[in-house]
Amino acid sequence: MRSAVVASLGLAVLVGLVAPPAQAEGGHRPPKTTTSWQDVKKPVAEGYGGAVSTVDLDASKAALGVLRRGGNAMDAAVAGAATLGVTEPYSAGLAGGGFIVYYDARSRRVTTIDGRETAPKAMTSTVFEGIPFADAVTSGLSVGVPGSVAQWDLALRRFGTLSLGEALRPAIDTAKNGFVVDQTFYDQTAQNAARFADFTSTAALYLPGGQPPPVGSVFRNPDLARTYTELATRGPSWVYGGDLGAEIVATVKKPPVTPGSTRVVRQGLMELSDLKAYRALERPPTKISYRGLDVYGMAPPSSGGSTVAEALNILEAVPSIGHRVGLHEYLEASRLSFADRNAYVGDPAYVDVPLDGLLSNGFAKERACLIGATALPNPALPGSPDGSYSRCSGSTPTGPAAAPDKAEGPETTHLVTTDRWGNVAAYNITIEQTGGAGIVVPGRGILLNNEMTDFTFGPAPGDPNLPAPGKRPRSSMAPTIVLKDGRPLLAVGSPGGATIITTVLQILVNRFDFGMTLPQAIAAPRASQRNTPTTQAEQAFIDRYGPQLTPLGHTFSLVPGPPVGEIGAATGLEFLGRGKIQAVAEPARRGGGSALVVSSSPGKGR
């Protein structure tokens, strides 16, 4: 019976749910008046000489313009990210942070750049105790020391060909000239309208006339244009110890609360010395072998690379215990890897993360032994990645269950770029909650992050993700690059809080286990099992697979969002051979994404 169920959940059923891209393009941002097909938002593009995929047409065009002018993948990634700070300001910006996984074609090496925000020196492990989560988010207390500008600077100095000022030019132009408001931007503004209204600077920018900008209107951010222009001239030190840093600190310590607001807005802990002390870091990536492919991801303080990799290792061990890889096994591998993630992963400068053990084949085999014909009891307990692993007959989980993750929505954004030389960037950038802390720095047009709420709210003795001075909160961001025979094959990532991990994992499983194309793998309906009693899923997944998975002990609920029932907004690239690249974005989720290539013909993009 098990084999029949697994077979029924295979390729034919999954592919049957994927709609052609043309059926999912409704509701996209109205294109500007142009004469080029590249000014129309499309989820799939194939061609040569370089490619880019983001959630936004303007950001994709900014990155593509850099490639066409001779810039490389890192130049394009920074230009695209800065432009997303204009057009996707509720998910990205210079007051946020992120992670880049990068393949350098010259050295044929994958590395990562950590631009994660850090806690102020005054942060303690008990700072959030007794504070409701919603109150913590919308406050100066939630604001971490931003890492984006330091990350952009390090990334360009190490791997780029442009100066920071040159990379910022497309974003400056977009902020000055404006972009057309789409349904997603309107909806996200409306969802945040109540808290935006409680800050004078935020309301003035994002609630003109007291209302969200209407769909189809042109939205401009002249303050941000001036901020980017000054940053281009003054450089990163303007943020990290200079006048802009002082303005950020002043806003954190005394948020511009609207007179008469009844919201309790706590002051933050950041000092200018915290900004002076900040450093972006180049780190080695996580790496595993899966189905003969090398999968690289982001190491701690992100849990993305380790959790995706552990789940893949578990799935590769599944056939040895008499199973085939199907959706049941995907959900169970994710459940087990999240149990270990919650128990062990944090900032490696503060926590002894057993990364080698978590990524070892021996540990994966021990964990795979727990997967049976029905779903595991909840919560699954963490394993012991100590180097001593038992056979199936003696495999037992150890340790108490860690606290489950809080509900998370579609915050964060992801982009991918590649160039004519074969360099590849996969980049997650974020300000955490959609809309961050809800506080705009007066006169600067930038939203502050609320990354400190990514820490565990205590008391939770022994939790690896408790706050501490200077510590980087654990992240779920999972930019991923896959190599075949030492050359790039695929790059992928997604927003979505903790569902980022399951989205990336499911796309990889769809692509390499179920035989889907990358567009099919990204468009397919999603489910996210994160060691919780109920698996959050999209309605299409529940409708199609619920009747087959429920008898195995799985229960499902719609992901709470917002928007309800939607998981992630992935972007990816695949290298098809002979220099041809396929760029892929969402056909529908988050309004659909924008995939572009330098040239549709070989030779013309070089």
Automatic annotation (TrEMBL):
Region ranges (Disordered): 380-412
Keyword flag Signal: yes
Signal peptide start-end: 1-24
Pathway: Sulfur metabolism; glutathione metabolism
GO molecular function: glutathione hydrolase activity; leukotriene C4 gamma-glutamyl transferase activity
UniProt cross-references to PANTHER family, sorted A to Z: GLUTATHIONE HYDROLASE, GLUTATHIONE HYDROLASE PROENZYME
Name of this protein: Glutathione hydrolase proenzyme
Organism of this sequence: Planotetraspora kaengkrachanensis
